[in-house]
Amino acid sequence: MIQLENVVQHYGVRPVLTGIDLNVARGELVCLLGPNGMGKTTLLGVMAGVLMPQKGSVKIDGMERRSSEENELAIRRKTVYLPDHPWLPKNRTGREFLIAVGGLYDVDPERLLDHVERLLKLFDLAEQGDWPIRSYSNGQQKKIALCSALVTDAPLLLLDEPFAGGLDPSGILALKRVLKRLVTDRQATVVLSAPVPELVEELADRIVIVHHGEIVGYDTLEQLRKQADCEGSLADVYQKLVHPESLDNIEAYFGDGEEGAA
Amino acid sequence: MMRRTIRSVLRVLPPLWTIVTFLSCYLAVWGLAEFFRGVLSGLPPHTFASLLKPFLVIEMGTATVGAALFAFWRIRSLHPIANWEYRQWLERTPWTPDRPLPMGSVLPGAVDVAVVAVLCWMAGDVWWFSSFMPLLGYLVVLIILSCVILGFTRQRAVLYSLLFALGLAIRLAASPLFSVLILAAALPLVLLGLQRSLDPKRWPDYALSLQKLSTDAKPASKELGWPFGYLGPRPAPRLVCWPDTLAISLLIGWFLHALPSHADPREVNEHGMVGFAVVLAGIIALCRVVGYTVKHSAPISPLGRLLTGRWIIPRYDRVFVASLWAVSAVFVAEVLVESLAVPAAVGQPAVAALFAFLLLAIGPSYRNWQLTGGHRINPANIRSKAGTYLEV
To answer: Does the CB of A82 have a partner CB in chain B at under 8 Å?
Structure first.
């Protein structure tokens, strides 16, 4: 579904992505994990067509991004990207906005109205659906943004930090289950970034660990455990692959403290 | 029968309060003119005429503005493309284009003839052509608004023909009678275009403003903010094809030939146009570049380009090519026009037409740029609409 070959991206002099090769199959849920500022958003942006990499190619369903008008339009029809900070029309109601986004993706009007209704109910926005978006709380704005990505019925979802932005526990649970069902029932492909390993652990089919613009690990949790030679949780595996020194630092901190106290 | 005729006349007339307001204004102007006519009647004829003239000009102007506003009202209120609420309502009724519009015909007819005739009579006779002026005002506004409608309904041949006629009318404006005759001769085209524009299949399938969002109107995608407005599957439509490019360029040249034809020849400086033309062309070309790049930035910063040795990024830098070619062509053409002593009335419009042609014909089109350009979409610049959007 998604193929990245030798992708290099830099905005100035410092490289943000260096020689990224990545394959995501149809019907897979892949999570990008990594420290802040290490290239997760840039990697998603390259897949979403926000950026044009300086080197390498990005292919979706075998079509290269921005290679021709027809290919790019075909890719856009089957892809939806939700950045971590989307801009919503603040004077429109949530329902109007969702209907408009569904219309943009040519969703059948009858199905669209029904889908909007179900999404609003799922994310506890049934009552607020007819309020202007400016009156929503931060969490409700995040929910309506997530609904806008889901209402498109696109088979490829690229979501940047979908669990951040004030989402409440029921919203997080709803989103996790919806994404899981989309992947298993409809063979949708989901690539998302998340800063918290615990969220990713139960959700992802495969995990990409990005560090300093490179992929330091890309596999299932089991395989990553073998790679890191660590039997613990994803958080432990992540620490071992990205910050191998941080566990020792913690030990050293308490060791020093105990010696001092003694 | 009588009642039906009266009803059909009333339907295409503006609301009563606008008619009363207009008549009050006109009567005030007319009363003032008549008052001064009485007061000044004892003066010598020459002084009398010069003192009274401003009032008579205002009287004629009022009638002309009235005719222009009537034409504006006819199209704005009665054409479904110009009146969104009307269109929405109409689409829910069994109306078809072969039946009369329920709120009254948008095509000029007997009522228009009667209204404009009355206004022509009201315009007075300060000059021999005074009584034509309301007709001229009516026709100009009607044709301009029809052109807008024709643009939306993609009737390009009729649109360009009408614009050519408008240019010809401007060219001959020194003799208002000729202008009126030319515009009147273009009326069959207006009728044809407006009649065709009533076919709902030709109507644009998107709402012109976000306020119009509904299930049966697709919004222009740029109104949906970030990311849908810029990464959604509906980029800018393909606006101009080759015949359009040629027609638009020729029309620009034609209007530039027609408009200054009324200038005093003594005030036209045929020399020293090179600098002015190149600067003007440069400003327009720069506007094009800014329009393309404001939301689609370069993939690397200028410093990054220098330090990484990527001085030219072909898939991004192609956005500058049309502007550079067009400005260079203006420079060369202006030098030729000046050295060959081509009259300004011919040379300058030709240069402008060439400039417009190059700017439009050399790619990329905005749509192509959006979809295949080697740029980085810059959502930060959507903040210019921060009054409309909310960052989550």
So the answer is: yes
Query: Which helix (H) or strand (E) is B143 found in, with range?
Result: helix B133-152
Structure tokens at A104: 């943009």
CA distance A28 to A33: 16
A contacts of B376 (beta carbons < 8 Å) = 11, 50-52
Query: What CATH homologous superfamily does A2-83+155-219 map to?
Result: P-loop containing nucleotide triphosphate hydrolases (3.40.50.300)
Q: Across the interface, do A85 and B221 touch by the CB < 8 Å criterion?
A: no
Residue B357 within any structural domain of the chain? yes
Chain B contact for A63, CB < 8 A?
Answer: no
Residues B173, B33: one domain?
yes
What ipTM does this complex have? Answer: 0.86
For chain B, 392 residues long, give each residue's pLDDT as a single digit of tens: 677 777 777 778 888 899 999 999 999 988 888 888 788 777 777 787 777 788 888 888 999 999 999 999 999 999 998 888 888 888 888 888 888 888 888 999 888 999 999 999 888 776 777 788 899 999 999 999 999 999 988 899 999 999 999 999 999 888 888 899 999 999 999 999 999 999 988 887 654 433 444 444 455 566 788 888 888 888 877 777 888 999 999 999 999 888 876 666 555 555 566 778 888 889 999 999 999 998 899 998 888 888 888 889 999 999 999 999 999 999 999 889 888 888 888 888 999 999 999 999 998 999 999 999 999 998 777 654 556 777 77
Length of chain B: 392
B211 → chain A, closest CA residue: A92
On whether the CB atoms of residues B63 and B123 are closer than 8 A, the answer is yes
Count of structural domains, chain B: 2
